[in-house]
Structure formats: structure tokens, C-alpha cells
Protein 1
Amino acid sequence: MFKNIGRIGIEMYLLFQHHTTLEILRNVSNDQDLFTITGTGWHFVKYLGPAVVVVGPDCRSERNPHQVMAGPTYQGLFPKVAMLPPSVQHCIWMITVPIIYPRMEAAESLANTIATGKKAVTGTYNVIGKVAGSVAGVVGAKTVVGEGFNSVKKAVGKTGLMGGILSPFGEIDMLDELRDQWTHESKDLERTYLIRTLQGIAHQRSIRMTFLSGDVGCCGAGLVHDPSHPSDHKTMYQIISSAIVNGPPPSYLLKMLHNNKALYVPQNGQRSTNSVSDTKEDMMEIFLTDVTGTAREMKKLMGRRNYVAFVAFDPDLANQQYQQGQQPQPEHTSKLSLAVDFIVQGDGAYSAPVKYGPVIIPRLEYGQ
């Protein structure tokens, strides 16, 4: 059943998001649109002008509890990025969930506790129900007792006390969400491999790497960087923008995410221990005020519907022409930075959206 659900999901994804089908793709001899590397998963590399490229790896088709993408997929994607034309200055990786994101150990601990409690409650009532049912069978009330215990189990299950926590399959929804994150321990080595490899390509090609992700119900920005060498090739930005149709996560979850735990990326092949390394992770404090203008305590993530806007610009040209009162006109030889604005839904059905930012993603200078 689940294989069929996955197959239909891929077909609908290709049809409605890429306006194509598997039959069409398999009869195309070039990779200018979508391409596959392993036969499972469809990826793309798109140009937004000569200086900006968007890479869209398929992070769903090969996903399992222990990986996001298979090794051969990375070995096919990385050379395509390493061989981009010399004009490319920025490479934006569209990846479903954030690579750079606060850790959620407290949330996972809570979810595991709930999962253990659910199993204990369900198991206890199963045992008691069987005993009571067998006794009740003597007096002819077995059906009534059985229905009563089923009602109690439902009361603490997906339709009762745990209604906001359990998935439709009765599992802990939060645990499933946590396992889906790049920052989960099950994806730790793969995440480090991706970050460190892209740092190497960035250094060789002087291309600034940026991640654009969502699917977490909030917006924000983070980065990995070397504090002793600001803006060098190890600096990669993470832009997070939630889907407009999704509601925000609970406030207690956002509060858990606003922690000040120091995080570092280990060397390739090593598990994260958060020992000090040459690559530190940080979230940026962008949301100093709420959409109503009141001061915010949680400044790193905003739990409101939103979208982001990217604008490429030449900082030197912009400053020069701003002083002269002219409209900046980028040239082919411009050294481009990216400005990212967050457009956040206002408070109320008829309130105007509020802009936050910009987050400036600088061009990577040659040799840095």
C-alpha cells in the first residue's frame, strides 16, 4: 500500500509542480529540465541569469529512516555544481527542510516520553481489558467491558488527550517530524558530508552556497561560518520560509528552538559532538518586533505565514548610484550579492504584510 502511495505521490509531484510525467522524462535525452542519476528521484539545475543558479535535489524519493539521498546521487550532483560556468557567483540549494536549524533535543525527549507513556497506557489497558473481559465472559458482559476499555484507549489516543500529538496512524507525530530533519542524529553524517563537500566546491570555484528551505511552519535565517574568517568559503546561509498554507508550530516548540546552545560542524566522516571546529552554526536575530510593532522575546524564528524575496544586486554600483540619485543598472561584470526580504502575514485578515530584513548574502571573493 505504502509503495503505491509513494508512486502516486511522485506522479502528482511531477505533474503539478513540474508539469511533466515519468513517460515524458524518460524519453528526453538531455538534462536541461529534470534529470535522474540513479533512476530514483528527479533533480534540476536552473539558471536565474548568468550569475545565479538554483539546484533542486529530490530529497524525497530516496529518503528512508537513515538517509535523505543515496551516495551515488551526491556523486552525480556535486560534479554538475563543480562544473558550473565561470559566470556563476551564487548557488541556491532548494532543500525541503533546513540544513541549518536549532536542535530539538528537548522536544525529542518530550516526544519519546509521550511515546513511552502511550505504549504503557495502551499496554496496561490491553492487559486489564483482557482479564476483565475474560471474567465478564462468565457473567455474559464481555462485549460491554471490551467496548468500555476501547473507549478509554481512544481517550488517550489520536482522538483524545493526544489528539494534537499523534499522527493519523496513531504514532507520535512529533517524533516523525524530528526524524525528518537534517539535524536529527540519523542524518548527522550525511549532513556533514553535504556541508563539507559544498564548502570545498565553494573554495575551488568561488561560488557562494546558500540553502533555501521550508516545511517547518516558520521563517528565519541562519548560517554556518568560520568566526575567525568571516565571509570566506565556509560561510553558507540558510533561508527558511514556511509554506503559506501551513499553520505555525505551537509557541512552546518555538521557545524550545530559541536556545543558545553552541553548535559546530565536525570534519567529514565524524559524528557531531559540538566540539569547537572551524565551522560554527548560528541563527540570526531578524525579528526584533512582531507584526504589531511590539518587542519580541523570540527573535530568531517567526511563527507566521510568510514568503521570501531574493534580489541580486551589486553593492558598489548600488551605493554609487544611490548617492547620485540614479536607479542601479547591473552590468554583466557586476559582483553580485543577494538581498533576502521576509514578507510576513499581518495580524488579522485585512492587515498589510510586514517586511523583515534584508539578509545580505555577499558574493564569495576569489581565493577566500
Protein 2
Amino acid sequence: MAATECPCMGARRRAALALAVSFAMVLGAAGPGLAETATSPEQAAAEAAGAWTELRPDLFGDRELIEGTGTIAIDAPKRATDPAVVPVTLSFDPKMDVRKVTLVIDENPSPVAATFEFAQGADIRELSTRVRVNAYTDIHAVAETGDGKLYVTKAFVKAAGGCAAPAAKDPEVAAREMGKMKIRAFETDDPAMHEAQLMIRHPNNSGLQKDQVTLLYIPAHFITDLQVDKGGKTLFTMTGGISISEDPSFRFRYGASDAGPFHAKASDTEGKTFEKTFDGGQS
């Protein structure tokens, strides 16, 4: 699968993206002042709405998307400090029995950042990760509940260039540490809830980044699948793409039983599998 092209992007969308990239290069050469004033917030919002109009039927067909206020919430910075590492937190109403969430970064070359599926009884209340943002964009989160209904919410983020930003880590170090996992447990203010963070060492190359020495594109290489278990029972799974940041991190709050060790299993586009059981709940 080519990392730089999403199946749901039509010719018109690819042409628009190419034009936007070319225009951004011209603005960069002209200086920061022009780049800041070229697109008004109103124009950016209108363009973002247009992208979603194209994406929505490709991703969800003619299914009804219900306004998700009260069912799902998304928290992301209005202006990102680092477009390659933009924090996103999703929160869910426990009464709504959310089973699946699709995270879509509308203006990214491959818009679907990840799809999360929650096991019945896992009681996931909150999930945070870090993503790449390639242009001013809406980020949509679409939650599917146990009765099959879809609920949608969004946040507008100002950031650019995240998918092509150079890796933060030296390639040799990244290769040596690839697949290492760590999990942290956190205290919560509710004794019925538990919170943990899984961190995975992986370059998660987007296919749009260049080697800083050869200036050749680095092939896409990213985690495609992840499963997180607790005490032998699955909490959630993830199917990911190029928009998940380098060294993926997932912090989650859940109400399922906290008995037994965590177990995580991930696989990537090169067919490599990384797996670890965290005895004692933390490592």
C-alpha cells in the first residue's frame, strides 16, 4: 500500500493537495508575514468543511452521523506547537456503550489516522494519542455505539508539515530500539477507574519524510495493528496509519477489572511483530 496516497482520495482531492503544497512553498519563500496572512480563519474553516464533505461518504457511506455532543468529545490544541506531535484526547460517555472510534485528520494525505475498537466490558472512558497534522484541518472523531449508531464531533487544528517533518531520532538509534515497549500506571480520583499509558518505540515513518543526508524519501514503515489486553482479556485494538506520530503512545482510562498483567502486541508494515507481557502491571 502506498503511504502517500489514500484510496478515498479522488483525482480532484490529490490535485488540490499538490496545489496546496506548491502554494505553501511559494509562501515560505516569500516570508513568514505573507504566509500568516494568506489564508484567513474563515477560508481555512471553509476548506476543511469541503474536505469532510468528500471524505464522509467514502468512509461511512450513507449512514447517518449524529451530532456527538454528550457522547464523544475531542480535545486538541487550536494551534499545535509541533505539527509532527499533536496531542489528541477522546472522551466517551459511559452510558453510550461506545465500541468503535474512527479518528480522521481531514487534510492529511491519508486521512484516517486510526480506528480503535473497544472490547465489550472494557469500559474505555478516555483515550489519548499523538498525531501528525499536515495542514490546517478539522480532526473528526466518529464513535459507533453498541446499537450501531454513529456519533461525530470535531476540532479545528492549526498546524502544517507534520507528515513530512524529519524524524526526531537518529535512524540507527530508532532501528536499535524498535519494538521496545513500556507501560505506566496512574492513580485516579475514582477507585472504580484505572489509567495507563502504553509507549512503543517505532519510527512510524510516513513515506513523506526525507533522509537528511541523501535527501531521498524514507519508505513508509509504521505500526498497522495493536492489541492491548489486561488479565487475559482484550481492552482495545487499533488499526493505524501514517498519521500516528513517531514512537506511538496511547494513554487510556478504563473501568474493566484491573486484575492480571497487561499484554501488548503490535505489528507493522514490514511484517514485524512486537509483543510483551508486563508482569506487575508496570515496566
